């Protein structure tokens, strides 16, 4: 069952989905499609509505409007136990009065499966998640990582078509989270079912995801694979949220074929519209990733393909692998140039020095919304 | 049931029977029924608790008949209450009740503070359980049992005589307001401990650590920190004792002298005398007093703060 | 133990004070029990131990009859009120009208027994009159005596009296329960009832059982509301009160009071013992948790 991956059938098809709590709109008219066998991540800031969306998929809350199709079947009104989904929670979701094996076998017992078969399947699952030795432990005697593995096992053993994961790694420390991330990814490749994973952690999202959706303020901002969203975001919010981008705000003053000229008051930038319908007078933002920006050495002539901009040097922030050079533009905004740490650059400038920043023109991105 | 090799194909068997969709009408019916189920306690309390108490106001203005009452509008019952010895009795029982509240606070509240500050988490609920113990003995027994204790030939006098503290038995305790106050304190003191404890639960422990850190003297910590933070709990406990002191007829009936009559006793006496409008008027006055106090307390201290520990 | 810097003696003194207060609250009851074993009764110079007074109780048919009534009332109240308290606590957890719910359910604590009893008495009398006149008007009589004072009205009074205690006890136990577990069960395929029965209930069982114990004891001890609403029959407390008021504290009253107290103390003592044993068990679990976990 590992050949389902990336098939064309949609495992999740959501149209116009909204959820209100009184006057608060937690989710507004979300449209989303997730292919069967995909590892899909819902990424966004806390309180943005991604968990609401996941809980709507799982059937733990009822939509205020819109429709949810799972494998083509409308389940909008169905309770969780009548959906082809299974959920892994952030924490505290193991049954504390049952052993690890009983936890994993719970769903099978509900299905009135013969005892022998349950224990066979539970053993196989414990083997797969690497907890065979701990079958008779109680949940509180497990570490955080082990508890989350048991949750995974409890869900996977049911062979549901869609696994929902609600911040499954949030309660773990950073190192363990990294390990578990890869494990999750490999596990999904093994079992081949659809995973829908909610997280606010960018690195976690990029590690596991085939595709991502950015969700903020109750709206679906943008979808795409990790590389697209990182390198080629359309929406301003995405550029701001993913990676570390420098953002310039201005107005479109001229549209010339594929190029739009954006006036920032203190400088003008010509940026590829990437197919967006830019009109003169539109408010626009231009972003450039901070690792693509560097400081020209004094007297260095920039190549033609480079955009340059004068700035006043502020300070260097040493981050280990990289050093961030924070400078100030003519309008007072800060701009960050992030480079691999090397002594000669880190100490080359002192605060208040006038410098020139440079980056490749074609890497600049225009954002109209 | 399809078998694939040695194994049952789950997605075909358990999967589909268990996860198959429920018809919508049945779902809606289930939802309706469960909503109704969860409303039962609320409906019950509205119907048999809030409604009868609210209706006391209506019944209190009914006309009294020989054995019952009939619809009408008269303030006779209120006149009967406010322009007779009953008002004086009521007011003096208010005074006694207030004294009981004060005494209970002085003796009981420090225990709540102590339990919160110095008793380890696991043992805390056991201490509270200790204070539940008296409630496990019937109210009437606890109140009646005070007679042999406080009597002329009772326990207190016997012990004091034996010890030579007094030469004549004290007779000024039982069948006096003092007896009623002792009875009220002994009956209701645990409530100030419970309410105080609940209120103190809402005070985070680090607050005390900050006080220690700043070297605040004990009485200042008590006045500046503990009292304001625990005020809603103290107030709720106080109101409880005050209102019960006014309303529990048994206390003055068994421990008080001829003049000791509180609202509860007036009401039950009115019922025995078949003067139902009067009984209802007193109930209405009591409910008014209670609601007024709670409203006042809520405006002053935000009583919802007491509920933080259970939320 | 508190903070290690503080004086151990002040700590012990405060404990002593706390226990002294509890002892004082219980003193009258202990004294009554003490007297109940004296052959010569209250106020006598000589103390001769005897169980005779207790023997007298059980030959008192009036009392035995009342005991039967009380036990039936206690049983029905428990069976009805505890599930209601449970449902109310569940409702409180999910509803957004929290303040209304909690005020409605806890306010009976603040209404004195005589006041609530009187109001309910008049309420039921009115309901009864209404039923009879509607029955006359319709020409049918099968609901005439629905609201006649009796078991039913006494039961209503007792449920209102016990519900706040049940609600609070269960709510506090539920505070330690994580709602995600129910959701996890649902997502494993459990129905709402299965999730409650198999996952939530085992974890709040202690609270539900203590609530039952509470209800039985409170019902058993209650006098005012029951006596106002009970109609014609007797309960243990009403027999006791009438005896005490008519004959003063007779030797038999002492014995009866003691007996009632014994039962109550035994039940609550049992509950405390049970929770102690349980928390001992929890302590062991906590220690087990502290042990290093061998494989990761």
Observed structural traits:
heterotrimer; A: 369 residues; alpha+beta; Rossmann fold; OB fold (Dihydrolipoamide Acetyltransferase, E2P); 2 domains; five-stranded antiparallel β-sheet; 24% helix; 36% strand; disordered N terminus; C: 296 residues; mainly alpha; MetI-like fold; 11 helices; 0% strand; disordered C terminus
Overview of this protein structure:
The complex is a heterotrimer of chains A (369), B (311) and C (296). Chain A has 369 residues and is α+β, with helices and mostly antiparallel strands. In chain A, 24% of the residues lie in helices and 36% in strands. Chain A folds into 2 domains: 10-231, Rossmann fold (3-Layer(aba) Sandwich); 244-367, RNA polymerase II/Efflux pump adaptor protein, barrel-sandwich hybrid domain (OB fold (Dihydrolipoamide Acetyltransferase, E2P), Beta Barrel). The longest helix of chain A is centred in the middle third of the chain and has 18 residues, at 174-191. Residues 1-7 of chain A have low confidence and may be disordered. By secondary structure, chain B is mainly α. The longest helix of chain B is centred in the first third of the chain and has 37 residues, at 24-60. The two termini of chain C are 35 Å apart. In chain C, 76% of the residues lie in helices and 0% in strands. The longest helix of chain C is centred in the C-terminal third of the chain and has 40 residues, at 251-290. In chain C, helix 2 packs across helix 11 (251-290), helix 3 (61-94) packs across helix 10 and helix 7 (179-187) packs antiparallel against helix 8. By secondary structure, chain C is an all-alpha fold. Chain C is flat and about 70 Å long. Chain C has helices at residues 8-36, 52-58, 61-94, 98-106, 113-138, 151-174, 179-187, 192-221, 224-229, 236-247, 251-290. Chains B and C meet through helix 1, helix 2, helix 4, helix 5 and helix 6 of B and helix 1, helix 3, helix 4, helix 5 and helix 6 of C.
List the helices and strands and how they pair.
The complex is a heterotrimer of chains A (369), B (311) and C (296).
Chain A: E1 10-21, E2 24-35, E3 39-43, H1 50-58, E4 65-70, E5 73-74, E6 85-88, H2 100-110, H3 115-128, H4 144-156, E7 162-166, H5 174-191, E8 194-199, H6 202-208, E9 211-216, E10 219-224, H7 226-231, H8 236-241, E11 245-256, E12 259-263, E13 268-272, E14 283-289, E15 294-295, E16 306-318, E17 322-328, E18 334-340, H9 343-346, E19 354-360, E20 365-367
Parallel strand pairs in A: 3-8, 3-9, 6-7, 7-8
Antiparallel strand pairs in A: 1-2, 1-4, 4-5, 9-10, 11-12, 11-14, 12-13, 14-20, 15-19, 16-17, 16-19, 17-18
Helix pairs in contact in A: 2-3, 2-4, 3-4
Chain B: E1 3-4, E2 7-8, H1 14-19, H2 24-60, E3 63-64, E4 69-70, H3 76-82, H4 85-118, H5 121-132, H6 139-144, H7 146-150, H8 155-163, H9 177-201, H10 206-214, H11 218-247, H12 250-255, H13 263-272, H14 276-301
Antiparallel strand pairs in B: 1-2, 3-4
Helix pairs in contact in B: 2-14, 3-14, 4-9, 4-11, 9-11, 11-14, 13-14
Chain C: H1 8-36, H2 52-58, H3 61-94, H4 98-106, H5 113-138, H6 151-174, H7 179-187, H8 192-221, H9 224-229, H10 236-247, H11 251-290
Helix pairs in contact in C: 1-11, 2-11, 3-6, 3-8, 3-10, 6-8, 7-8, 8-11
């Amino acid at each position: 069952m590992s050949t389902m991956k990336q098939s064309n059938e949609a495992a999740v098809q959501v149209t116009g989905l909204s959820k209100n709590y009184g006057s608060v709109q937690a989710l507004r008219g979300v449209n989303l499609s997730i292919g069967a066998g995909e590892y899909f991540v819902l990424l966004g800031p806390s309180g943005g509505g991604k968990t609401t969306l996941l809980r709507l998929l799982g059937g733990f809350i009822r939509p205020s409007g819109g429709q949810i199709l799972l494998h083509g079947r409308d389940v909008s009104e169905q309770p969780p136990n009548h959906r082809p989904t299974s959920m892994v929670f952030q924490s505290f979701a193991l049954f504390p009065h049952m052993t690890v094996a009983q936890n994993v076998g719970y769903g099978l017992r509900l299905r009135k499966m013969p005892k022998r078969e349950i224990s066979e399947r539970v053993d196989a699952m414990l083997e797969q998640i690497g907890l065979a030795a701990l079958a008779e432990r109680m949940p509180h005697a497990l570490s955080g990582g082990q508890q989350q593995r048991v949750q995974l096992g409890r869900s996977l053993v049911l062979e549901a078509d869609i696994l929902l994961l609600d911040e499954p790694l949030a309660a773990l420390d950073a190192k363990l989270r990294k390990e578990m991330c890869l494990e999750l990814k490999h596990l999904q490749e093994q079992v081949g079912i659809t995973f829908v994973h909610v997280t606010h952690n960018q690195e976690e999202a990029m590690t596991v995801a085939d595709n991502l959706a950015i969700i903020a303020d109750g709206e679906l901002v943008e979808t795409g694979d990790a590389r697209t969203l990182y390198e080629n975001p359309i929406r301003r919010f995405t550029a701001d949220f993913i990676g570390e981008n420098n953002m310039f705000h201005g107005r479109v003053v001229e549209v010339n074929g594929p190029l739009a000229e954006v006036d920032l008051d203190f400088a003008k930038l010509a940026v590829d519209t990437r197919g967006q319908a830019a009109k003169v007078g539109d408010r626009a933002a231009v972003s450039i990733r901070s690792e693509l920006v560097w400081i020209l050495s004094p007297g260095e002539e920039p190549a033609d393909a480079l955009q340059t901009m004068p700035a006043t040097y502020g300070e260097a922030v040493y981050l280990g692998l990289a050093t961030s050079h924070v400078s100030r533009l003519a309008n007072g905004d800060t701009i960050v140039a992030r480079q691999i740490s090397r002594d000669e650059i880190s100490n080359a400038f002192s605060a208040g020095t006038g410098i020139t920043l440079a980056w490749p023109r074609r890497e600049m991105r225009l954002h109209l919304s | 049931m399809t078998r694939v090799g040695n194994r049952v194909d789950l997605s075909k068997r358990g999967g589909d029977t268990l996860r198959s969709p429920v018809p919508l009408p049945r779902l809606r019916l289930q939802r309706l029924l469960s909503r109704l189920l969860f409303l039962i306690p609320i409906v019950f309390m509205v119907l048999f608790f809030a409604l009868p108490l609210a209706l006391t106001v209506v019944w209190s203005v009914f006309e009294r008949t020989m054995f019952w009452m009939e619809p009408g509008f008269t303030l006779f019952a209120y006149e009967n209450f406010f322009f007779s010895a009953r008002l004086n009795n009521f007011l003096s029982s208010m005074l006694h009740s207030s004294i009981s509240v004060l005494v209970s606070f002085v003796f009981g509240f420090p225990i709540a503070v102590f339990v919160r500050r110095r008793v380890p988490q696991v043992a805390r609920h056991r201490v509270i359980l200790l204070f539940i113990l008296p409630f496990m003995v019937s109210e009437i027994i606890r109140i009646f049992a005070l007679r042999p204790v406080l009597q002329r030939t009772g326990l207190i006098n016997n012990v004091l005589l034996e010890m030579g503290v007094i030469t004549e038995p004290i007779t000024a305790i039982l069948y006096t307001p003092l007896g009623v106050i002792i009875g009220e304190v002994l009956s209701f003191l645990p409530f100030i401990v419970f309410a105080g404890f609940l209120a103190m639960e809402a005070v985070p422990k680090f607050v005390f650590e900050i006080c220690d850190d700043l070297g605040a003297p004990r009485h200042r910590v008590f006045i500046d920190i503990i009292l304001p933070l625990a005020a809603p709990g103290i107030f709720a406990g106080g109101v409880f004792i005050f209102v019960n002191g006014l309303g529990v007829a048994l206390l003055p009936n068994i421990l008080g002298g001829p003049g000791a009559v509180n609202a509860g006793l007036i009401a039950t006496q009115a019922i025995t005398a078949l003067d139902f409008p009067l009984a209802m008027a007193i109930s209405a006055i009591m409910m008014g007093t209670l609601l007024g106090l709670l409203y006042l307390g809520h405006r002053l201290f935000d009583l919802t703060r007491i509920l933080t520990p259970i939320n | 133990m508190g903070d290690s810097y503080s004086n151990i003696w002040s700590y012990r003194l405060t404990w002593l004070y706390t226990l002294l207060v509890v002892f004082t609250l219980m003193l009258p009851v202990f004294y009554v029990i003490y007297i109940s074993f004296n052959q010569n009764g209250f106020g006598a110079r000589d103390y001769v131990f005897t169980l005779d007074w207790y023997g007298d109780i059980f030959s008192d048919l009036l009392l035995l009859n009342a005991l039967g009534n009380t036990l039936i009332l206690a049983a029905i109240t428990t069976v009805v009120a505890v599930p209601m308290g449970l449902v109310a606590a569940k409702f409180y957890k999910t509803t957004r009208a929290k303040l209304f719910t909690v005020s409605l359910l806890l306010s009976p604590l603040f209404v004195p027994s005589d006041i609530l009893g009187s109001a309910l008495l008049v309420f039921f009398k009115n309901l009864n009159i209404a039923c009879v006149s509607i029955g006359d008007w319709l020409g049918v009589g099968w609901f005439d005596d629905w609201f006649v004072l009796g078991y039913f009205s006494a039961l209503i009074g007792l449920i209102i009296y016990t519900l706040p205690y049940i609600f609070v006890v269960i709510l506090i136990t539920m505070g330690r329960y994580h709602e995600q577990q129910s959701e996890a069960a649902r997502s494993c395929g459990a129905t709402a009832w299965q999730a409650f029965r198999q996952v939530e209930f085992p974890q709040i069982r202690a609270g539900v059982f203590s609530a039952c114990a509470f209800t039985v004891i409170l019902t058993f001890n209650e006098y005012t509301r029951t006596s106002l609403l009970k109609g014609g029959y007797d309960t243990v407390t009403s027999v006791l009160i009438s005896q005490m008021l008519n004959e003063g504290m007779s030797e038999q009253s002492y014995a009866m009071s003691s007996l009632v107290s014994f039962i109550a103390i035994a039940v609550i003592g049992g509950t405390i013992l049970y929770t102690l044993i349980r928390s001992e068990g929890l302590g062991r679990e906590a220690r087990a948790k502290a042990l290093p976990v061998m494989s990761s």
